[in-house]
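User: I've been going back and forth on whether these two constructs are worth ordering. Before I decide, could you fold them both?

Assistant: Sure. I'll take them in the order you sent them. The first construct and its structure tokens:
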Amino acid sequence: MFRELSDSWTEFAGIWDRGRGFGEIRKLWLERAAGLGQPVVIHAGGVTVEGTFDTIDETGCLIVRTSAGKRVPISAGDVYFGAAASVGAV
């Protein structure tokens, strides 16, 4: 297991290239993202944002599309996906 993690770390560290490779990392991450297009609730700084997990933007923020169609960037918070989103909304 350590060998696989080490090999993956080496591969992605090379792609990362001090942040210059973020676009490629983002693309690979989105290919594997769980919850993309699904309900999401985020609690951050006393604010709750509900909507659909739309994407990850070029700065690394999670983008939530609200029911009103607004795209809200989220840089940090408690994130609840799918069925847990209905519990997290309470």
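The second construct, handled the same way:
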Amino acid sequence: MKWPWLPADNEFKGKPYEISTRVALKKVLRQAAELGVGLNLGIECEVFVVRLTEEGKLEIPNPDDDLTKSCYDIKRFMDRYTWLDKVATAINQLGWDLYSFDHEDANSQFEFDFKYADALTMCDRYVFFRYLAKHYAAEENLVATLYAQAVRR
């Protein structure tokens, strides 16, 4: 799949929009560079894959994903394998160097880890990761969310 997405800096009346998070980060990075400092960033992209009920509530897609601590559980990992494979493949095709992905502590929670990058690049990747995860979840009539409280039972 080709991903037509381009991060951009917001402007207002032809000038950088100071409260844009991307513009603000670039300002801080310039200040750091003036001090001779650079900033690399590595993050853990954690996401819940849930289902929206007819009543508009979020629930865990498979009822047997009910372990108290389901971290690294292979069965629950395989239940979401199609989605995991699509996201992992896309991350690698984008050249982000995925080095791990797994089922995390909570029910239907997953984590993706890829190589660190400079702070601006990593922040752009994280924003795009959210679109990527949501897109592939929607293909399976699921919802990818980063809001943990929404899936509590």
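Notes on the second construct follow. The CA atoms of residues 9 and 23 lie 6 Å apart. The mean pLDDT is 88.
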